[in-house]
């Protein structure tokens, strides 16, 4: 059966929406009428996404948040480990969901499973929700016969990634707000306050101090060209985004970022931690090492690091050890290389990769904390310096007022 979205009028004339399963639109309409509902629209749950134009490919594709994905995965894990068949587990998870989008997605997956396809294959029809790593782990769990524990690992992994992402976002919110407020305050002073205060000096025949003249010129420039500067800045951001859609330009940009002190350390720590964590969970789920390296390389956001991971996979495929391949790439942290070498020697590579990822995430968190601790007082000093310059530019002519008045 197929999942269908519907809109119908109830006995009170109110429009209701939902998702049901059926063999055809006609059968679904019959089900709705038997429930005293008058169908207005019935369509397959994923038809809208399939018919969407290429210029808006991501707007109508079914997507769910990492939190919802972790919750659904946790529910499926619990149901599967309770010896419930996969199609029934999907049905139960869909019934428990309050989101029509999630319900439709799960029912679509269930329909493919009921037709005899594997769960990994059915999830493959929704790559924007279930990425390659997710499907590879599900496929390994199905073939090895321990799908429940694999889904539980996936739920833990998704929750951890969401937690890490939220920490990074929260760490960046305050600096952005601080910078925004500082820019807004200085702009307001220059555009609205300064012209009123220094206007009394512009008619004097005496030459104004250089600081005051600079302040007046800056204020006039912002008043006349500030709006255009904002438009140019927005246009520049849009143009840069479009230029970076080209893989060659994007790689050059990512290569430049890796040469910037401070930023390169953050990028490498974040990406390699994600790489180690993904590789660990894939191998622990029974995915072969070469396949795990290929999939783990796809989670790297930096194109240069992704190319390095591909070279690492090629060296391992040629018979080299993983730690030697990581060392020769020159990009991966030395601590990670040493821990991988220890894991290969002791036969606990998955465990050492997991520890390496945890260590790198802690180091990244400490680095961000240190940077934020330095950034906050620095912004206060810069803001205070700008305000001091504005005040001095206004006060200097006042101090010299007795010589300026004739």
CATH topology group of the domain at 261-365: Receptor-associated Protein
Distance between the amino and carboxyl termini: 94 Å
Ranges where pLDDT stays below 50 over 5 or more residues in a row are: 47-60
Largest β-sheet summary? 3 strands, antiparallel
Structural class by sheet pairing and helices: mainly alpha
Domain Type II secretion system protein GspF: 73-195, 275-397
Subcellular location: Cell inner membrane
Function: Component of the type II secretion system inner membrane complex required for the energy-dependent secretion of extracellular factors such as proteases and toxins from the periplasm.
Protein name: General secretion pathway protein F
Topology:
Blueprint: E1 2-9, E2 15-22, H1 25-34, E3 38-44, H2 47-50, H3 66-81, H4 86-96, H5 100-114, H6 119-123, H7 132-144, H8 147-198, H9 210-243, H10 247-257, H11 263-284, H12 289-298, H13 303-317, H14 322-329, H15 334-346, H16 349-399, H17 401-404
Antiparallel strand pairs: 1-2, 1-3
InterPro entries: GspF/PilC, T2SS_GspF, T2SS_GspF/T4SS_PilC_CS, T2SS_GspF_dom, T2SS_GspF_sf
Keywords: Calcium, Cell inner membrane, Cell membrane, Membrane, Metal-binding, Protein transport, Transmembrane, Transmembrane helix, Transport
GO molecular function: metal ion binding
């Amino acid at each position: 059966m197929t999942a269908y979205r519907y809109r119908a009028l109830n006995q009170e004339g109110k429009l209701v929406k939902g998702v049901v399963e059926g063999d055809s639109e006609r059968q679904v309409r019959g089900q709705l009428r038997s429930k005293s509902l008058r169908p207005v629209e019935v369509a397959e749950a994923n038809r809208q996404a399939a018919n969407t134009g290429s210029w808006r490919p991501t707007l109508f594709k079914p997507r769910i948040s990492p939190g919802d994905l972790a919750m659904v995965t946790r529910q499926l894990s619990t149901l599967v480990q309770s010896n419930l068949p996969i199609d029934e587990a999907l049905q139960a998870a869909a019934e428990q969901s309050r989101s029509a989008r999630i319900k439709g997605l799960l029912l679509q997956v269930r329909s493919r499973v009921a037709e005899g396809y594997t769960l990994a294959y059915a999830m493959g029809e929704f790559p924007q929700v279930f990425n390659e790593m997710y499907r590879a782990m599900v496929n390994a769990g199905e073939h090895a016969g321990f799908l429940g524990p694999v889904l539980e690992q996936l739920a833990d992994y998704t929750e951890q990634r969401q937690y890490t992402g939220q920490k990074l976002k929260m760490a960046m919110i305050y600096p952005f707000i601080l910078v925004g407020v500082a820019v807004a305050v200085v702009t307001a002073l220059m555009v609205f306050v300064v012209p009123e205060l220094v206007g009394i000096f512009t008619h004097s025949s005496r030459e104004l101090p250089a600081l005051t003249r600079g302040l007046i010129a800056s204020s006039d420039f912002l008043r006349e060209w500030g709006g255009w500067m904002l438009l140019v800045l927005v246009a520049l951001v849009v143009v840069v985004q479009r230029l970076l859609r080209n893989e060659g330009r994007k790689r050059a940009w990512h290569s430049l970022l890796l040469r910037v002190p401070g930023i390169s350390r953050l990028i490498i720590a974040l990406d390699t931690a994600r790489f180690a964590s993904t590789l660990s969970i894939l191998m622990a789920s029974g995915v072969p090492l070469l396949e795990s390296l290929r999939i783990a390389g796809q989670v790297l956001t930096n194109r240069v690091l992704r190319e390095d991971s591909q070279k690492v996979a090629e060296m391992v495929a040629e018979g080299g050890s993983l730690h030697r391949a990581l060392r020769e790439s020159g990009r991966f942290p030395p601590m990670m290389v040493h821990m991988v070498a220890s894991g290969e020697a002791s036969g606990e590579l998955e465990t050492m990769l997991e520890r390496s990822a945890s260590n790198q995430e802690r180091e990244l968190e400490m680095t961000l904390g240190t940077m934020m601790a330095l950034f906050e007082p620095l912004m206060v000093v810069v803001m205070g310096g700008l305000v001091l310059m504005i005040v001095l530019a206004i006060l200097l002519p006042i101090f010299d007022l007795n010589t300026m008045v004739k």
